[in-house]
Amino acid sequence: MTRLAGKTSLVTGAARGIGEAIAKAFASEGAQVIVTDIDTDQGEAVADAIGGTFLRLDVSSEADWDNVARRFPTLDILVNNAGITGFEEQPTPSHDPENAQLSHWRAVHAVNLDGTFLGCRYAIRAMRAKGAGSIINISSRSGVVGVPMAAAYASSKAAIRNHTKSVALYCAAQGLNIRCNSIHPAAVMTPMWEPMLGQGPARAEREAAIVADTPMRRFGRPEEVAAIAVLLASDEAAYMTGAELTIDGGILAGSTGI
Ligand SMILES: NC(=O)c1ccc[n+]([C@@H]2O[C@H](COP(=O)([O-])OP(=O)(O)OC[C@H]3O[C@@H](n4cnc5c(N)ncnc54)[C@H](O)[C@@H]3O)[C@@H](O)[C@H]2O)c1
Description:
By secondary structure, this protein is of the alpha/beta class.
């Protein structure tokens, strides 16, 4: 298990969920892993478990990224994974196009999109010395289709999808072997779903509705997304850049339930 041996990686939002699974998969493939998150306790626990290094990083903060650049001036792999839906707040604010507040719209874009922009900018600079590297941006199924009740999330994820291609083409044009690709998960069971699933009897019904809308009739697992990240991070994907990989149990393969 040494597909990433000798490589240094940084994963954002790695304290739990998909980011944690990616950090663990990278470590088990031989990479050095810098675990970053705003959740210090949980992030340190993940780093300890895999023999990695923890650094507090709010991806929406330019000053935090400057700190990362000072601490880690060179890098082989970056995963821009940290993301929010906008439904973390209680009571849950409106996120439809008619009723959403500008402050809520901006807050989602600050983490998801600004965070990815700042991460890509840092990574290009940190990978330039070797002239090679892999940047993996975690977008979403929601970056490919409209989501009326989560418009800021969908907009930010669509912009991540597009920025991935700008970064890929920029690096190629510069003669750099820095690849940039996006992963588009959907319905992966992580703590991100908690505010949307809620508690009580309605929770099982909501879960069942999501499963019924998924062609493979189940939720995905964070480890299944991590496996795709390992592939994109490794030299096996040497000719892949600007690509988007969906991992969604078949949701985006069709347009109706029949
Ligand atoms: N779970 C899914 O079904 C699903 C589907 C599509 C896309 N995604 C995307 O996958 C990524 C990971 O999602 P998840 O399901 O593991 O979510 P999660 O909520 O379980 O974990 C997100 C992590 O990001 C961290 N985080 C939040 N704001 C941050 C900030 N400003 N700076 C740094 N870290 C921050 C949180 O502390 C948390 O550890 C997100 O970008 C999400 O949009 C998830």
